[in-house]
Amino acid sequence: MKNDEKDIFSIPILNTDDVRSHQDVSETLLPPEKFIPPEVPDDPLRKTVSDGAETEQLHKEKDEGKSVLHSGKCKKKRRTGNLQHRYRLFVILAVLLVFLLWLFLRFSPVSFGRVIVDGNSTMSNEAVYRSCGISGPVNVVQLSPGTMKDNLSNDLRVAHVEVVREFPVTIHITIEERKPIAVMTTMYGFAYLDANGVVIRLGQRIKGISVPLFTGKKMDTLLLGDVIKNDPVRDSLTYLQNLSPEYLNQVAEVNVGNPDKITVYTSDSIPIYLGNGDHPEQRARITEELLQEVKNNRLSVDYIDSDIQAPLVKSK
User: Fold this and answer.
1) 256 near 214, Cβ under 8 Å?
2) Which of 76, 288, 291, 310 has the most CB atoms less than 10 A away?
3) pLDDT tens-digit map of 235-285
4) Residue 221 in contact with residue 187, Cβ under 8 Å?
5) How far apart are CA 64 and CA 45, in angstroms?
6) Would you say 306 and 314 are in contact if contact means Cβ atoms under 8 Å apart?
7) Backbone phi, then psi, for 218, in 5-degree steps?
8) What would the pLDDT profile of 141-190 be if each residue is shown by its tens digit?
9) CA distances to 76, 178, 197, 199 from 226, in Å
10) DSSP letter string over 201-266?
11) Residues 6 or more apart from 210 whose CB is under 8 A from it?
């Protein structure tokens, strides 16, 4: 009986090391339990984590955008640099080409451009070209407007000249020719005078022109370019210059033999007294008025006095 009780109530005592070893084995064999938090609506912790992830994603996208933008700017700069380089190269080549073309035209005997002449009536275009220094083909690159103007100004046939270069390849010459207004007798023929008393032509006889003839005084040897200094002659030239073409064509002779009684004769043999030749502009105006009166009234005239104080038409 005692033995049975002993068997029943005897509990085996386990060693502590064995228990620990058993626990370690259990922990090793059994997988650890994972804690999964329950889903809670509007969880501030989950929201914070989510916001942080979104912010990080935004920063990442922003950085990527900056990288793309920087890359685009770099490409644009490279394109701009390439265009500028091509443009500079194009400009250099264009300038070089123009320079080479200029050299070719400057020193080659080729025709290039044109020269226009206006205002010439007695001088031909060829005469104008020779006078201004053009020989051979017309090449405006090789011509200097200033030099051309100087050459033409030294020509006695030219009273005034303008030479300008016009775009693109034209030189325009505008001249005013010296026109003979009277003829004077010399020892060897006749000298043609312009309004300023300059000898612009010499000849043994009068031909091809109808202008008044100075009589009563024969000049000694006159050369081209000489200027008449005689006062009665110069006053008479001013008088003739101030007559309109209609009345100038009626004057046939100017007698300056008596300096105090200069006399003009018309083609109808009407004498017109100019006195000593003073006030030639006013005397020219009075002459036109009196000749018009004679024409309108069909007068038979003995003479006309152009005295500015008392003009007179003396009838026969």
Assistant:
1) yes
2) 291
3) 999 999 999 999 999 999 999 999 999 999 999 999 999 999 999 999 999
4) yes
5) 29
6) no
7) -110, 125
8) 889 999 999 999 999 899 999 999 998 899 999 999 999 999 999 988 99
9) 77, 14, 8, 5
10) EEESS--S----EEEEEEE----TT-B---HHHHHHHHHHHTS-HHHHTTEEEEE-SSTTSEEEEE
11) 249
Query: Do the Cβ atoms of 240 and 214 come closer than 8 Å?
Result: no
Count of Cβ atoms closer than 10 Å to residue 55 Cβ = 10
Tell me whether the omega of the peptide bond preceding residue 145 falls within 30 degrees of 0, making it cis. Answer: no
Q: What pTM did the predictor assign? A: 0.63
CA distance 180 to 207: 12
**Among all chains, which residue has been given the structure tokens 């004679």?**
294
- What's the token pair of residue 174? 């505008």
Question: What does the alpha-carbon distance between residue 215 and residue 265 come to, in Å, rounded to a whole number?
Answer: 11
- C-alpha 17/C-alpha 23 separation (Å) is 10
Q: Strand 271-275 to strand 262-266: parallel, antiparallel, or no bridges (unpaired)?
A: antiparallel
Tokens of 267: 């083609």
Beta-strand relationship, 114-118 and 170-177 = parallel
- Distance separating alpha carbons of residues 314 and 316, to the nearest angstrom: 7
Q: At which residue do the structure tokens 């090793």 appear?
A: 28
**How far, in whole angstroms, is CA 26 from its chain's centroid?**
108
N-terminal to C-terminal alpha carbon distance within the chain: 209
Please say whether the beta carbons of 184 and 214 come within 8 A: yes
| Token code pair at residue 296 | 């309108």
The residue among 203, 204, 152 whose CA lies nearest residue 178 is 152
The secondary structure element, H or E, covering residue 305 is strand 301-305
Residue 200 has a CB neighbour count (10 Å cut-off) of 22
Give helix then strand counts, H and E, for the chain: 8, 12
Report how far residue 48's alpha carbon sits from residue 166's, in angstroms, rounded to the nearest whole number.
83
